[in-house]
């Protein structure tokens, strides 16, 4: 795990935070290409809730190079975490993502990477195949000033990405560039993280990481852990490492219970997607 010092971060000047962190990932990967085979990028408010899972379960396999995942509560591709092989192909993707800062309309800049990532994907996997629809979506983006308008743009882009999906019937992935790029679907068991608030800060055995563990949020919600997570190196390397996760037993529930809740989120986001798609009018572009 790499912790970035404030001094190193400041070397990138006044560019937005999300640009800095992606630049750091790419540059660090390039400098350590001979040492590091994979990069698992996670937001600072993500944490391992179930250490019985291993990172190896989620690493790219076979032809896979880049893995992202769908957010559960809307139609965005999650920008705050990804897993890549450390090579020129993947670093070019991350560099393009970082440089997209200069293409984001000023009116929508405060929505930053979560919205821009959708356009990044389309640019890199096939923006020329549906040029009229692509230009239509970008027009929406250039005039978006509210969260709702940005979500219309997201649905517009995801519509085109769905047309480009190489495995539309795969229940686990959206697949692009001959399998090199995959976006894990909302209910995919391959998904390594999710937002913790989706189900009252509870978790089950299938969960690996949770997103949203900000200090103020932790203070205002029921605690998953009974004591502060502060393990020693010797404990982490011992067979008793699980003792570091001193759970509140009531925070762990059945996966059936959580998955039933997730189905509600999936249905809601699909309805919202259809509504936003209709508002985008991209379906009428020929």
UniProtKB/TrEMBL annotation:
InterPro entries: DUF273, Nucleotide-diphossugar_trans. Pfam families: DUF273. Signal peptide: none annotated. PANTHER family: DUF268 DOMAIN-CONTAINING PROTEIN-RELATED, PROTEIN CBG18972. This is Glycosyltransferase.
């Amino acid at each position: 795990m790499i912790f970035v010092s404030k001094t190193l971060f400041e070397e990138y000047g006044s560019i937005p935070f999300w640009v800095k962190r992606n630049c750091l990932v790419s540059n660090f990967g390039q400098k350590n290409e001979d040492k590091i085979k994979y990069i698992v990028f996670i937001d600072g408010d993500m944490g391992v809730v179930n250490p019985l899972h291993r990172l190896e379960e989620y690493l790219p396999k076979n032809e896979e190079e880049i893995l992202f995942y769908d957010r559960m509560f809307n139609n965005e591709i999650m920008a705050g975490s990804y897993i890549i092989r450390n090579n020129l192909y993947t670093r070019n993707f991350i560099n393009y993502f970082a440089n997209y800062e200069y293409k984001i309309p000023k009116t929508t800049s405060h929505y930053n990477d979560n919205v821009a990532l959708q356009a990044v994907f389309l640019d890199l996997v096939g923006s020329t195949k549906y040029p009229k629809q692509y230009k239509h979506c970008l027009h929406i983006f250039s005039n978006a000033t509210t969260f709702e308008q940005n979500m219309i743009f997201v649905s517009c882009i995801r519509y085109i990405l769905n047309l480009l999906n190489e495995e539309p019937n795969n229940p686990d992935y959206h697949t692009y560039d001959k399998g090199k790029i995959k976006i894990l679907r909302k209910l995919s068991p391959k998904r390594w993280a999710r937002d913790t608030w989706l189900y009252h800060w509870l978790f089950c055995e299938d969960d690996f990481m949770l997103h949203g563990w900000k200090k103020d949020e932790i203070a205002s919600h029921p605690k998953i852990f009974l004591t502060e997570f502060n393990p020693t190196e010797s404990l982490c390397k011992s067979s008793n490492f699980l003792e570091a996760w001193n759970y509140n037993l009531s925070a762990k529930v059945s996966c059936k219970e959580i998955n039933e809740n997730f189905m509600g989120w999936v249905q809601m986001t699909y309805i919202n997607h259809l509504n936003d798609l209709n508002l985008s009018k991209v379906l009428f572009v020929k």
